[in-house]
Each structure stands twice: as C-alpha cells, then as structure tokens.
Amino acid sequence: MPETVLAPPETTAPAPGALAPEPGPGLLPKVVFGLLLAFCLTPWASPPVALALGLVLAQTLGNPFPAFTKKYTAKLLQFSVIGLGFGLNAYAAVQAGREGILFTIASIFGTLVLGYFAGRWLKLGRVVTHLISCGTAICGGSAIAAVGPVVGAKDEEMSVALGTVFVLNAVALFVFPPIGHALALSQHQFGLWCAIAIHDTSSVVGAAAAYGAEALGVATTVKLARALWIIPVALGTAYFFKRPDVKVKLPWFILGFIGAMLLNTYVPATQVVGPWLVQLARLGLVVTLFFIGAGLSFKTIKAVGPRPFALGVLLWVVVSTVSLYVIVQL
Q1: Dihedrals φ, ψ of 164, to 5°?
Q2: How many other C-beta atoms are found inside a 10 Å radius of the C-beta of residue 98?
Q3: Of the residues 53, 105, 139, 228, which has the fewest C-beta atoms closer than 10 A?
C-alpha cells in the first residue's frame, strides 16, 4: 500500500510590495491603561491629573484602545455635562448667562474676523483657517465637527484643526488655574474667563472644577450658552461658503443640561439625588480627560504643522488676554 504523505498547509504569501499588518498592542499597554483608568475613578484623581496621565500613556506605551476612546469620549462628555446641570440653580445660571452674553458676541465675531486676516497673513487655506477660528471662537472640537461638513472639509483639514485645538486645550487646563490664583481672581471671574478663553467644554469644566464649585457653575453655564452659537455660525458659514443645502444639527446635550438644571431648581425630589448625579458627572469628566490625553500622541501633535498651530496660538493668546483684561476691569 503506498505511503500517504501529508502536504503542509498552504500559506498565502503577501503580495510583492504589500505592507505587513501592524501588530496589535501588547499586554503591558492594556494593563497600564486599565490601572490608570481605575485610578481616574478614585477621589485622588482630578481633571488635570487625568489629562496628564493620558498624555504620558500616549507618549510612552501608546493608547492600546484608540477606537474605543475616540468613540466614547464625546458621549461621555455630553452625559457628564448633563449631570452637572443637577448641581445648578436656574436663576443663578440665567444671571451668569446674561452677564456673559456680551462677552460671547464680541469674542466670537472678533475671533472670526481676526482669524480670517491672520490666516491670510500666514498663507493658510480658507477651510483650515475657518475651522481653527470657529474652534477658538465657540467650543473647540464640537464647533469644528459641526462646521467641517458645512465647508466640505477634508479629513486632513479636520485633523489639523482638531489637533491644534486639542493641544491648546491641554495647555489651558494646566495653565489657567495657576494664573487665576496668581491674579487673585474670584470664583465668578475665573469661571467667566474659562468659558470665554478655553476652547473645548471638557477643558473649561476641568479647569473650573479645579478652581472651585462656583467657578464650575459659571463656566459650565456660560460655555454651553456660547456653544449654542454653533447654529448661527454654521448657517453663516453655509452662506459665505455658498453651501445653502447643508443641515445644521442642534447640540442636543445642551438641552439635556438645561432640563437637568430646571429639574434641580423646581422639583424638590430631584435635589435628593442631585448631588450623587453631580459626583457621577465629575467622575465622567475625569475619565473623559484621560481619554482625550490618551488620544493626543506625538504623531497627532506633529501632524498639525507650524502655521496652523501658529494661528491657533495667536487667536488663543489674543482672546485670553483681552477677555482677562476686560473681566478684571469690570
């Protein structure tokens, strides 16, 4: 009887010139990520600490779950903002919002005009200039995400604008509280300054929470009122960029924040669970900032380039210094 010879299993060789698939993250980055995430849920973690831990992880071992953190960062922030509404009184919020409306209007339109001329001076593209200007003027990444489809922004243009804003957000979260203490700003003054001069809601709330409870209330209210300007700015963008057929979405989580604030003010039963919901929201914010830091790798920073980053820094410095001067003088 002839001997049966088993042939070795066939293997598919990569095509000539094809890139081999990148190996997935090892066990160590995953374990460290889990430990750091667990620490962010403890009372010892704060928004700046969480952001710093995420940044360190991104620059050393790398983020082992980039798709996960990218998917849940925005959602977690939105639900955290809604939860913070259970710690605010509607009457105080209206007063804070009323005071910040003039700052909001002046700073938004001033930033957009300054950004237009600064972008031309730096010889940047019209789309990138407008995205960075809108991100600085209104609410960072949320504004860029809303305006990007309106102007037909490419992925590269969106990445550059978002990278610029995220880097400056990280800097602001560490820099603003020490400046506020050095200048002896009141809780109200600091909260107002954060809402105007810091881009993303996450960093605004994080910096204000590090300064005090009153600063947090003022900053959150004024910033979310400011975020509503996404709608008129996006509509104006559609007009000037000659894209009248685009649809502008309402930031739904702002309505949730307002609803939570009204419940806390007018429904006594809500006030019993309100403090627990606020505490849960603050934990959510800490985790959000850890996710943001973990996603801000050196590759992301390097991809921004010097000229877009110069525009972002110029606008941020002007808005920060002018708004601080006006607030101190009032």
Answers
A1: -60, -45
A2: 11
A3: 105
* Range 178-183 contact pairs with CB under 8 angstroms and sequence separation of 24 or more: 180/211, 181/211, 183/324, 183/328
Of 286, 295, 219, 298, the closest CA to residue 49 belongs to 286
Burial track 67-81 (b if 16+ CB lie within 10 A, e otherwise): eebeeebbebbbbbb
Span 204-218, pLDDT tens digits: 999 999 899 899 988
Biggest distance spanned by C-alpha atoms of the chain:
103
DSSP secondary structure letter of residue 123: T
Query: Would you place residue 65 in the very low, low, confident or very high pLDDT band (cuts 50, 70, 90)?
Result: very high
180 contacts 211 by C-beta, under 8 angstroms: yes
> Over 80: is that where the pLDDT of 48 sits?
yes
Q: What is the DSSP letter of 138?
A: T
Burial (CB count <10 Å: 0-12, 13-18, 19+), residue 97: middle
What is each CA distance from 313 to 112, 156, 278, 303, 316, in whole angstroms?
14, 20, 33, 16, 5
Average pLDDT over residues 82-102: 79
* Helices 270-294 + 252-266 axis angle, to 10: 150
Q: Which of 180, 255, 249, 256 is closest to 219 using CA atoms? A: 180
CB 112 within 8 Å of CB 133:
yes
Of 233, 82, 222, 77, the C-alpha closest to 144 is 233
Q: For 108-118, what is the mean pLDDT?
A: 94
pLDDT band at 2 (very low <50, low <70, confident <90, very high): very low
